[in-house]
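pasting for ref
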Amino acid sequence: MDQVVVITGLAQGMGREVAKMLAARGAAIAGFDMDPEGIESLKAELDRVGARHHLVPLDITDRPGILEFRDEVLKRFDRVDTVLSNVGIGFFGPFEEVVLEDALKCLEINVIGAAAIFQAFLPSMRERRAGKLIAMSSLVGQVPFPFESIYSGSKFALEGLVLSLRYEVEPFGIRVALIEPAQVSTTFAAKIHKLPPEGSPYRDRARRFIEKDEELIKTAPDPVKAAEKVAKVVMQDNPRLHNQVDTMSTLFLGLNKYLPRSIRDRILLRHMDIEV
């Protein structure tokens, strides 16, 4: 595998595992993350397998920094074959109680962050008439979950961005793909789960949602298993547009496609234990 792959948010979790798997298959890895210690330890791991890499600490909201990173990567490797936009943050809470200034950060990172890294490398791919742009979306980018209105909104927007972008770039030989996991057994969800305050009319249902979600996470694919499926998508010359990494996302997306809304809603509310 002689690919040059850019991965954002690769210091920990699934992004890190994908980077290691691709490097073991001969890919050159370029990427960044806000975790400098994670970046340094990943460099050491890639060095041990003799992988080519260019890893830097960088914030996805740093637009000039992204362009500088792009220039460094293209100078070092001459091309980029695949960009995997993996960076993202969660957001949990009843919409009525959401602090919208905090919501802006989620939208900035999850949507504009992906747009920034794609836009940075798109010109070189267009000139070569080859490349892949892959975005880490979510089940909630198609099946909205309660108490995740802002996060779901960011993933709906990301899916819309990629689906629209496809029409523009495919004539230049560039492929796009979405990866839509439901859950991966990491600390991602636990970091955002926070009960509404005492007296909130949403507190009881939010508590039941959190308890059910954390129960489901225990049996979700671990980062290594999920990364194996993500790496497989990255390695394909012509990946499918929609890709799942776990049974739950495949099941819910199938139900979402074929069942009437009233039945889908009933299944979802029972599944997450939040029926009134």
